[in-house]
Amino acid sequence: MCLAIPSKIVKIENTMAVIDVEGVQRQASLLLLEDAAVGDYVIVHAGYAINKLDETAAAESLALLREAFSASEQNP
Amino acid sequence: MTRTINISPITRIEGHASIAIQLDDDGNVADAKVHFQSIRGFEKFVEGKPAEELPRIVNRICGICPWHHHLASIKAVDQCFGVTPTLTGNKLRELVQTIAQAEDKLLHFFFLAAADFVIGPDADYAVRNVIGIAKANPDLAKKVVQMRFKAKMMLEKFAGKSIHPVAGVTGGFSKPMAEEERQWMLSDMRELLDFALFTIEFAKTEVFPKYLDTIKTLGVINTGFIGTVDADGALNLFEGRLRLMKSDGTHTDFDVQDYTDYISEKVVPWSYGKFPYAKFWNEGFSLDLDHPKGIYRSNTLARINVADKMATPRAQAEFEEFRDLFGRPAQATLLYHYARLIEEVYACEHAIDILEDPEITSPDVRAKAEPGAGRGVGSVEAPRGTLIHDYSTDENGLITRANMIVGTTHNLGPINMSVDQAARGMIKNGVVDEGILNKIEMAVRAYDP
Q1: In degrees to the nearest 10, what's the CA dihedral of B432, B434, B440, B441?
Q2: Chain A residue with the nearest C-alpha to that of B385
Q3: Contact indicator for B420, B307 with CB cutoff of 8 Å
Q4: What's the ipTM?
Q5: Contact residues on chain A for B164, CB-CB shorter than 8 A
Q6: CB of B42 closer than 8 Å to CB of B34
Q7: Which fold has domain A7-74?
Q8: Which of A4, A31, A53 lies nearest to residue B61, judging by beta carbons?
């Protein structure tokens, strides 16, 4: 299942961003989202940020994912 | 001494997969497995929720192809509530799904797959990516970004944010299409079709011929296939009957509502994922490379194999050329890329056909729906394969049971087999290098998991 986890951009250098998901950081290419800025939330697929989403949408998605993960732990 | 080689995370595959290859005392492959992360119990999580909310929930979780989850889910809810969408509502759904397909394929071919071919599988990873392509061919790279943006903006301007779609609603679509919208979308879609035709020509002349040996050998396995066809046997990405084909080319068609008579899911001790297999063949489940049992594949190559023809002329011409070259069913795993580009041409042509249909601007986009008890099975051909949402609801329209089969899960078994095949073929006497490991990744990448 391809999980869509909103990741926050914390740093940008040229076309590469450092993204943060709940404290875990990794790199993503911004080649497909040239207007992305630090503080934006993005969905990352295969190392590319493919879509931007606003803070409200990101918060809603993260809340749903947390709920789904906790249901998953209760029902292995 | 035995050793394990881990490739993790797979660099340009979706970030939740890893490969583990076990070598025996002589340094030859004893076992190779691909592990995918997934949410267990997702179906439990949606129980008790109002069914009409599911089309907006599922696409927030499985967000790489949100439109496809959104629409498979809506189809299932329609059936639970006993409502048939209006003709135009259904066409609008099909239009956005088709555009989403076109967008996804461009992204995959140029950004995730082409680097291996354009730059070469043995090149250093630092240059073997789209930035390498951008340096080698800056005009092409710019055009790809523009085209993908155009497709994304079509969806966003007409139907709302492509990442979290809300445009589809129970009984149809949330808004009609204005004539003005139809006109600019037609113009954009024609431009995308030109680019799709350029892309397949580029691939056939500049890319694939250089790697024919790799294509003929890497990750090649012998399996059956699944995909959706219309009443004439032509490929259909949005609706129709499912066709399950054996490796000998014989096939059976069935309605998705009966999928549990044809497909079952196998739990294996070494993975959290469930492995779908063809229960209908009555041969059990085995990933044995020489004698696989119950194994079929989904996604682009599968759809091109099960279809008798394509419903649009340019795609049909490409389809005939492909079939003449590779036969039916074609088994070489890297042909997924070629099949993907044929589907890209079809998706663009078909979107134009839908936009040219006078019914598309009818204001009658939504049938009245009331929550109620029932069962519904909705499916679409998502970029990664046949996507099935199966729900039951109570009299208040709340979900009492849900099951989903996501496109990539059909391919979990075959991906494992392709990796096993690639690893066994290339790793001998403990000799492994970056080029070999990358080729093993390529076998996975072809499935676009």
Answers
A1: 150
A2: A1
A3: no
A4: 0.84
A5: 53, 57, 61
A6: no
A7: SH3 type barrels. (2.30.30)
A8: A4
* Residue-wise pLDDT tens digits, B6-39: 776 544 444 567 888 999 999 999 999 988 766 6
What residues of chain A lie within 8 A of the CB of B36, using their CB?
1
Whether the Cβ atoms of residue B80 and residue B369 lie closer than 8 Å to each other = no
pLDDT tens figures, B342-385: 999 999 999 999 999 999 999 999 999 999 999 999 999 999 99
DSSP single-letter state for residue B220: -
Q: Assess B146–A contact: CB distance below 8 Å, yes or no.
A: no
Q: What is the pLDDT of residue B121?
A: 66
What amino acid is encoded at B92 in this protein? L
- Note whether A47 contacts B: Cβ–Cβ < 8 A: yes
Nearest CB partner across the interface for B61, out of A51, A64, A75: A64
Residues B247-258 pLDDT 10s: 999 999 999 999
Q: To the nearest whole angstrom, how far is the Cα of A6 from the nearest Cα of chain B?
A: 9
What amino acid occupies position B284? G
B37–A contact, CB cutoff 8 A: yes
Q: Residue ranges per domain, chain A?
A: 7-74
Give the C-alpha separation, B369 to B380, whole Å.
Answer: 21
